Amino acid sequence: MLQHGPPTSLVATNNSILPEADLEDRHFCPRFSIVFPVAWSSAVLRPILSVLSSGFCRSPYPSLGPLHAPAKVFQPCKRWDNESRVARKVRAYLTKTKLGLLFGCRRRAHIQTEHGEALHAVHCTARKQLLIWLRDKWAAQRMAARNEHGHAKRQRWRASFAQADRPQILRDMLPQIPVKFARAARDLLAGWHVEEPIVNEPSPQAYKGTGTMFRYSGSFSMIEHQPSLDLLAAGPSVDIDLLSAGLRRNAPQVLAIWDDFQSWMTELGNKYRFERVSTALELHTEVTLQRRVPSIHLHMMFDTRDSAAMRALAPYLPGPCTRMLRPGRQVHLSGQSLAFRGCKPHISLDSSQARGRSVRRALDQGHFYLQVEKKGSIFRQTTCPAYQTFTVSPDWVTGLWQGDKINKECAEQHYVQCKRNIRAYCENLKYHGQKQRELYIQQQQAAAAELLRPLQKEPVELPEVTQLFLPQFTRPMHRRKFLVLNGPTRLGKTVYARSLFGADHTYETNCSGVLEPDMREYDVLGHRCVVFDEASVHLVLKHKKLFQAPPAEISLGHSATGMYVYRIWVWNVALIVTSNVWTTELEQLAAEDREWLEGNAILIQCSQPLYRQD
Questions:
Q1: Are the beta carbons of 300 and 282 closer than 8 angstroms?
Q2: What are the φ and ψ backbone dihedral angles of 299, each rounded to 5 degrees?
Q3: Using one digit for the tens of pLDDT, what is the confidence trace for 556-607?
Q4: Minimal CA–CA distance to 598: which of 482, 514, 516, 494?
Q5: Measuring CA to CA, how many Å separate 338 from each of 111, 191, 215, 284, 583?
Q6: Where are the alpha helices (DSSP H) in 42-84?
Q7: Burial code of 277-297, b = ≥16 C-beta within 10 A, e = fewer?
Q8: Average pLDDT of 472-496?
Q9: Three-state SS string across 238-271, please?
Q10: CB of 576 closer than 8 Å to CB of 603
């Protein structure tokens, strides 16, 4: 219970407990006073005062100590009879929220007793009254100009006021506005002056919550920097990191915007008592590449988490006071307060969708997002460094990497700092790089095939192929013979072999100098032919069952442990061997091996090109 206490109460002030009579003798009290009921024993009061006197409680006025505040915020008066109605409202409000002011969790911001203002609601009421006055005045002028009368006509003009150009109407009527609405008129004009962002995004009229992330952009986002313009005009491919570094080092316009934003953000944070703040100035990559003009946007992330002092006082506070210990203190930001250089923000992080502990993690993730060195990052600043004030989840890093916000080196560095499943995440990075290279090679192969397609020539017809080899695959057979194309180089043997069933349905494996064919990429669903390029007779003799193509699975990749064994199915699949030294190697074999090869292979000795030269 906090009030200018009754006679039956004790007052805690200046780190001591005094009877209220002593307080009444004082004509001026420049400090806050906390009044506790007499029912609270010293066993309850002493721990609270010990915490307060230790300075552990963060005061909204650090330079004045834990229990001090400027006299202009609240000065207890001895008498209530001579106070005005507005002053009594102010006193009642301050009495109700004095504990919140003392502990740094003030519930409202616009309390200005120095100039006689009561509450922020009073100023909001002035704006509404000004709009009503402006609407009625505008409707009366329209009716007078058209010589119209009657309540129905007046209501029609009042309804059309919402679609009228209200800023221009207010400017035209500024000389006629009453003095009591002068401040409200200035605030309305400032709030209505809104610049269009460089990207069409919705902007909130106001914000109420415990924390979020705002993104700002406007006419100031287009940077006139000649070196950057020359870099963008050099070609379609632009190094974003190089462009960002140039804007960071020698772009006075960018530095001025950043300094202005930091000053504005500091003032806003002090006014609304933000607990944690992170800001960033980044290059808008999409707009920059589209318009070929350096374009930037600003990020602001804030939250109002509960302070450590409130959590420390929880065991000593009575039940009603513990209701103030919430995960975060809500702040009310009007549209005018949110505007920076006439630009209203876009909410890029909606933490209100989270509940419980997820709210804090969502806010932590927002702060981490602005602290990472992303592509296009120019300036960054925070009051809550990652890995020191909060832990980082590796999934946050993965999300940024998936969105192409950071490169692989930056992701690997943060995985190490996260200290969770480092090996798994780093191996994922390496595997991604390997698969990326494979996909690139496949794309290059497809592009090369498309370029060489006009240069291909028609293959010749070989009687051994059309009469002996291909007819085997038109009827069921237990075993089939494989085809051997032997001859000098540059006769087109491999290209001819691929043309028999088409390149898309042919699996080609390089067998030069090896005794074990690599068929791990062989696809039984898509391949109808296998070409063993430069295979030797010894490779064929080592895998007799494979080259007979029986109706059974064939195991390959044998070793002493058998850990790399895999199985394939090649029944009714054409097997073709291309070689330059087949006959030479055949003559050097034993009679039994030579007899087996001659009985299971269809040998074609090539001496002419296997494509038409006309």
A1: no
A2: -120, 140
A3: 998 888 899 999 999 999 999 999 999 999 999 999 999 999 999 999 999 9
A4: 482
A5: 19, 9, 11, 21, 85
A6: 42-53
A7: bbbbbbbbbebbbeeebbbbb
A8: 94
A9: CCHHHHHHHHHHHCHHHHHHHHHHHHHHHHHHHH
A10: no
Q: Where are the alpha helices (DSSP H) in 54-111?
A: 85-96, 98-102
Q: Which amino acid is at 256?
A: A
How far from chain centre, in Å, is Cα 77? 53
Report how far residue 495's alpha carbon sits from residue 500's, in angstroms, rounded to the nearest whole number.
9
pLDDT exceeds 80 at position 30: no
Q: d(Cα 258, Cα 297) in Å, to the nearest integer?
A: 10
Q: Mean pLDDT lowest for which of 190-194, 202-206, 313-317? A: 313-317
d(CA 411, CA 405): 10
Burial pattern 349-364, b for ≥16 Cβ within 10 A else e, equals bebeeeeeeebbbbbb
Residue 283 token pair:
């290059």
Tokens, residue 335: 């549209």
Cα separation of 460 and 465, whole Å? 10
d(CA 410, CA 148): 71
Angstrom distance (rounded) from CA 319 to CA 26: 32
CB neighbours (10 Å) of residue 144?
A: 10
Q: What is the mean pLDDT of residues 277-306?
A: 91
Question: What's the rounded Cα separation, in Å, for the pair 305 and 277?
Answer: 11
- For tokens 């993730």, the residue is 365
pLDDT at site 463: 93
For 263, the token pair is 């000053």
Among 135, 140, 193, CA closest to 167: 193
Distance CA 371, CA 278 (A): 8
Other Cβ atoms less than 10 A from the Cβ of 231: the count is 16
Report CA-CA distances (Å) from 457 to 461, 498, 604. Answer: 13, 13, 20
Across 506-513, average pLDDT: 95
User: What distance in Å separates the CA atoms of residue 482 and residue 469, rounded to the nearest whole number?
Assistant: 8
Helices marked H in 323-421: 335-338, 357-371, 394-402, 408-418
Dihedral pair phi/psi, residue 241, rounded to 5°? -65, -40
Q: What CA–CA distance (Å, rounded) separates 15 from 48?
A: 10
With contact defined as beta carbons under 8 Å apart, do 213 and 301 qualify?
yes
Distance CA(199)–CA(216), nearest Å, equals 10
Q: Can you tell me the distance from the alpha carbon of 505 to that of 526, in angstroms, rounded to the nearest whole number? A: 6
Element (H, E) at 422: helix 422-452
Q: State the angle between helix axes of 226-233 and 240-250 in degrees (0 to 180), rounded to the nearest 10.
A: 170
In the predicted structure, residue 200 carries a pLDDT above the cut 60: yes
Q: CA distances (Å), 4 to each of 54, 75, 366, in order?
A: 25, 11, 42
**Total number of residues shown for the chain:** 614
Non-local (6+) Cβ contacts of 510 within 8 A are 518, 533, 534
Cα separations (Å) of 53 from 2, 46, 321, 420?
19, 10, 20, 41
Q: Label residue 368 exposed, middle or buried (CB < 10 Å: 0-12, 13-18, 19+).
A: buried
Is the pLDDT confidence value at 543 over 90? Answer: yes
Which is nearest to 277 in space by CA: 212, 331, 329?
212
Residue 412 to residue 431: CA distance in whole angstroms: 13
State the helix-helix crossing angle for 357-371 and 394-402, rounded to 10 degrees: 50
